[in-house]
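Retro notes
What went well: the complex prediction finally ran end to end.
Inputs used:
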Amino acid sequence: MSETILKVSGVSKRFGGLQALSDVGITILKGQVYGLIGPNGAGKTTFFNVLTGLYTPDSGSFELGGKPYQPTAVHEVAKAGIARTFQNIRLFAEMTALENVMVGRHVRTRSGLIGAVFRTAGFKAEEAAIAARAQELLDYVGIGRFAGYKARTLSYGDQRRLEIARALATDPKLIALDEPAAGMNASEKIVLRELIDQIRKDGRTILLIEHDVKLVMGLCDRLTVLDYGKQIAEGTAAEVQKNPKVIEAYLGAEHKTA
Ligand SMILES: Nc1ncnc2c1ncn2[C@@H]1O[C@H](COP(=O)(O)OP(=O)(O)O)[C@@H](O)[C@H]1O
Ligand SMILES: [Mg+2]
């Protein structure tokens, strides 16, 4: 049996009259790519926001690497070992690609962000090593040649890959990707799939939100399907795909947007 990385149970979250999440739970084992799918508005991003300390849940319990953790503050979550990307890209637009990744890395360094701001001696000593590691990560996600470019000048697809590099810089136990393929064209999606596969092969554990079912089916070891905040299916891709509730949720969603 593989080691459990993340165990979440009983997560509920209400916004006024809207029950965005009802009693959602997932268990992710080390080395898995775990998919969280569902139509728009199903509650996927809300689940990520709860998991990473942006929203306070009404209920829920959380374990990371076998230890309970409270996702109460974003920096505590990063320290505990969860890194994420955002559906709406959040980069430092005027900083270079390299600097964006270096910021991610400072979560893990002794002098930390305070040292970075005040440029302490300890910070300077670490900086060269951090820059070298950041460059490695940019190369790894395939955008090494843009290290010196301002983040805002990169293409949409490259900005998404930069976010992944920044998340990897914290050396996370779990990396959570919120619709990394959104806005990408078909060939960019193929490259992204290969990158996610590579990240897994390199020993990381991944939680992947995607609403494009086709994209995740070949990639995910297991999936949870959300619809209107409820977990309507859980299992392997093959199991989930033939679940009538899932088919209905997706057909219903297509019908609504058509
Ligand atoms: N901060 C918020 N305040 C009020 N409603 C919200 C908030 N965030 C999300 N919601 C609502 O919760 C539901 C789930 O949204 P979301 O988690 O973004 O869905 P998904 O990521 O699956 O598309 C939607 O109806 C959305 O409008
Ligand atoms: Mg979303």
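What we learned: The two ends are 44 Å apart (CA to CA).
What to try next: split runs per interface for comparison.
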